[in-house]
Amino acid sequence: MFCHQCQETMKNAGCNAAKGMCGKTAEVSDLQDLLIYACEGIGFWGTKALGKGVYDEETAFFVDRMLFATITNANFSAREFTAWTFEALRRRDALKAAYLKAGGVASGPLPGAATWTASTEEALKAAAATGLGGWLAEADEDRRSLESLVLYGLKGMSAYIEHAYAIGKSSKDLFVFIMRALAAISDRGTTKEALLALVVETGKEGVNAMALLDGANTGRYGNPRITTVKTGVRGRPGILVSGHDLRDLHDLLEQTKGSGVDVYTHGEMLSAHYYPYFGKYDNLYGNYGGSWWTQGTDIAKFRGPVLFTSNCLVPPKEGQKARIFTTGVVGFDGCPHIADRAGEGMKDFSAIVALAKTSLPPEELENGTIVGGFAHDQVFALADKVVAAVKSGAIKRFVVMAGCDARQTSREYYTGVAAALPKDTVILTAGCAKYRYNKLALGDIGGIPRVLDAGQCNDSYSLALVALKLKEVFGLADVNDLPLSFDIAWYEQKAVLVLLSLLSLGFKNIRLGPTLPGFLSPGVAKTLVEAFGIKCIGTVEGDVAAMVAGS
Ligand code: SF4
Ligand code: SF4
User: Fold this and answer.
1) Is 504 within 8 Å of 206 (Cβ atoms)?
2) Would you give the end-to-end CA distance of the chain in angstroms?
3) How far is Cα 19 from Cα 2, in angstroms, rounded to an integer?
4) What is the CA radius of gyration of the chain?
5) Is residue 495 lining ligand 2, measured as CB closer than 6 Å?
6) Ligand 1: which atom is nearest the Cα of residue 4?
7) How far apart are the CA of 58 and the centre of ligand 1, in A?
8) Cis check: omega of the bond before 276, within 30 degrees of 0
């Protein structure tokens, strides 16, 4: 195996042992690479077929789901990746046949991804074990780096598109882009200049993907509003819901209302509380525990069933598997899986509800509150107050501390920065990085909390809209002239997409940590530093001083 897609990769270079740092086995890692390789073949034939007017949305969505399934901490099942790869090959060959039937011609050298095949499980697993489709086949480190940036951006984009799709919103343009980008990275003839342009385009489409999900979420569940979320418990059995998928939460709340079972959010699902629609469910009680990586101890103390609606599943202990339910593309052998919904109907969560009814109530971990809900519409509603505070000097600087949390102690840096920033600074956040400081008593500035949480990592889109609005209000020519600094944490591929999206919107001088991505070659890192001023985080003291001074 060789995997370098997340921030925890071994030695910041690549996981290449029997298991990755995330617990993914070498077999699963190799099978994921092979599945992506098959999807690149779909991209190749799908793009050609589009030229002949042939478009297969079902296959485009399948590719989207497969990219999502290979994201860090989403699915650990060799069985599922094997089945999906066979399906990918079948869909790839069907698209090729449709292209030829529409008058296309299969001429010239074809990429390996367009022609490779396996007819038995044995042959497929043998191909995976040779590293077919994996990064080690790419000897040029700059190519590997640029292709990684595109592929990981696509994986993040796919996750957001999948959640929007569940709420009935999709975009042919985005699906077509994904196909075209996969085709480009499968083609050895794509120049490095073209790959760099594709990186930039991935960021631009990332903004569109986040806007799609924002429209889907707010269209169905309303614009987030300032909300106080309880972190305590009450003495009834509960179900803990993790991940990003609001439609899954919606279905579960419908099936638990009046049942005597409470629903608690975990990790990224915290921001569901901010949507007005969910306020009508009095059994959506509060948020339990910390960010994704604390799930082992949180689940042990929760005592009831847990539902994972998207990634950030940590391989569970044997004794916990029976009460850890997965759904969508999430999977772990031995954990029960909730099947996809049929059409517009609901998923059937009855097994989770039944188990909850026999479970003990959660143990109390804490008993406080978290305040959030500062997505774009809510902040725009407060615009006069915010602008007045900036003009009076009460707010001197905004610091975007969005992104991811993870296990390393080095991430205490973000707690340190939040605590050390002067009291006239406001922290804008989205994503699970906030768990490093969202329970600190940081106070407010004239009633404006010093931590404004927009929501999930995709709600970084909201933070960008807020910054662009401030630029407009203050009549600035360049968004980088705002009193605004970025101090972002990254972990997995959605964060890669968010970063590329911010760059495409023109934001510069972003601090990124706790390390720069291991998949950046020195050459590509230099390009990003020169073009965008990206830098790695330093010390708390040094970075706080630099940000206060305006960098
Ligand atoms: S996802 Fe991250 S931790 Fe897991 S194998 Fe890949 S690089 Fe390693
Ligand atoms: S904030 Fe980061 S770790 Fe958390 S779900 Fe989003 S991308 Fe994953």
Assistant:
1) yes
2) 40
3) 10
4) 23
5) yes
6) 7
7) 29
8) no
Structure tokens at 311: 């990634």
Q: Report the atom number in ligand 2 closest to the C-alpha of 490.
A: 2
SS3 382: coil
- Three-state SS string over 419-431 comes to HHCCCCEEEEECC
Q: What angle (nearest 5°) sits at the alpha carbon of residue 458, between those of residues 304 and 397?
A: 115
CA gap 454, 226 in Å, rounded: 10
Query: Alpha-carbon distance 347 to 166, whole Å?
Result: 11
Q: How far apart are CA 381 and CA 376, in angstroms?
A: 9
> Which protein residue's CA is at the shortest distance from atom 6 of ligand 2?
457
| Minimum-distance ligand 2 atom for the alpha carbon of 430 | 1
pLDDT single digits (tens) 45-93: 999 999 999 999 999 999 999 999 999 999 999 999 999 999 999 999 9
Give the pocket of ligand 1 (CB within 6 Å): 3-6, 8-9, 15, 20-22, 24, 29, 72
Task: Name the architecture of domain 374-548.
Answer: 3-Layer(aba) Sandwich (3.40)
For the stretch 113-146, pLDDT in tens is 999 999 999 999 999 999 998 998 888 999 999 9
CB-CB contact of 457 with 268 (8 Å) = yes
Summarize the chain as % helix, strand, coil (round to 5): 50, 10, 35
Q: Say what the pLDDT of residue 79 is.
A: 97
Is residue 490 a contact partner of residue 467, using CB atoms and an 8 Å limit? no
Nearest to 230 by CA among 433, 427, 431, 439: 439
User: Where along the chain do its domains lie?
Assistant: 10-220, 227-357, 374-548
Is 10:107 a contact under the CB 8 Å cutoff? no
- Decide whether any atom of ligand 2 lies within 6 Å of the 492 Cβ: yes
Q: Residue 23: which region, alpha, beta or left (left: phi > 0; alpha: psi -120 to 50)?
A: left
Domain 227-357 matching CATH 3.40.50.2030: the answer reads yes
CATH architecture of 10-220: Up-down Bundle (1.20)
Cα dihedral across residues 80, 136, 512, 406: positive or negative:
positive
- The two tokens of residue 191 are 């120049």
In the three-class reduction of DSSP (H, G, I as helix; E, B as strand; rest coil), residue 321 is classed as: helix
Calculate the average pLDDT of the chain.
Answer: 97
Residue 492 · residue 153 · CB < 8 Å? no
**Distances from the Cα of 332 to the Cα of 35, 122, 126, 209, 353, angstroms:** 17, 22, 22, 27, 20
162 lines ligand 2 (CB under 6 A): no
Complete edge-to-edge strand list for the sheet that includes strand 451-453: 451-453, 425-429, 397-400, 484-489, 511-513, 535-536
- CA 494 to ligand 2 centroid distance, Å: 6
User: What is the reported pLDDT for 136?
Assistant: 86
| Same topology between domain 10-220 and domain 374-548 | no
Q: Which residues of the chain have pLDDT under 70?
A: none
How many Cβ atoms sit within 10 Å of the Cβ of residue 235? Answer: 9
- The alpha carbon of 161 is separated from its chain's Cα centroid by a whole number of angstroms, namely 11
Cβ(457) – ligand 2 distance below 6 Å = yes
Take residue 269 and report the two structure tokens written for it: 């699902």
User: C-alpha 221: how far from its chain's center?
Assistant: 20
